Amino acid sequence: MSKRNFVQDVGPKPLRSGNDTDPTKSSIVIDKNYRPSEDEPFMNVRQRAYFRSKLLKWKEDIIVETRVTLVELTAQSQQHADLADRATSETDRALELRARDRQRKLVSKIDAALARLDDGTYGYCEETGEPIGLKRLDARPIATLSLEAQERHERRERVYRED
């Protein structure tokens, strides 16, 4: 059985984008104190709505930070008479741009997680098809591998890096 079939067999039915009856996009209101628990079915409607909300909030925060950074970088683009001041300013600017580039990549991962929520594969390991733990997803909502699969991946990466 392929990994994709396994995920569909045990996971939730895929949700269609643009579907007006998609409860994770419209009618489900999640209490701000709600946390997914092991006592409820994995990736049920409430859990999917919770993670969608969490991902969208994270993405919005990143976008707001990026806009603020752009305004600040534009305002700070001035010439410094002192070479040390100019060097410090350029170093700060380079660090900020590097951080923004990492966040741009993070937004892509958030978008991919939202797409997985839409197609019903969110919360399932890409490698094994097994559910990713709720605690892991809560801590790292963009996770695509279970903890065990991630550890195997990192061990293989370390071995190849040492060669």
Q: How many structural domains? A: 1
Q: What is the CATH architecture term? A: Up-down Bundle
Q: Any idea of the CATH topology?
A: Four Helix Bundle (Hemerythrin (Met), subunit A)
Q: How many strands?
A: 0
Strand pairing plus helix content: what structural class? mainly alpha
H-E order? HHHHH
Instruction: List the uncertain runs.
Output: 1-24
Residues in helices, as a percent range: 55-70%
Sheet-strand content, in percent, reads under 5%
Mean pLDDT: 82
Name the CATH class: Mainly Alpha
Q: How would you explain this protein's 3D organization?
A:
The radius of gyration is 21 Å and the shape is flat. The longest helix is centred in the middle third of the chain and has 37 residues, at 83-119. It has helices spanning 3-10, 45-75, 83-119, 134-139, 147-162. 60% of the residues lie in helices and 0% in strands. By secondary structure, it is mostly helical. Helix 2 (45-75) packs antiparallel against helix 3.
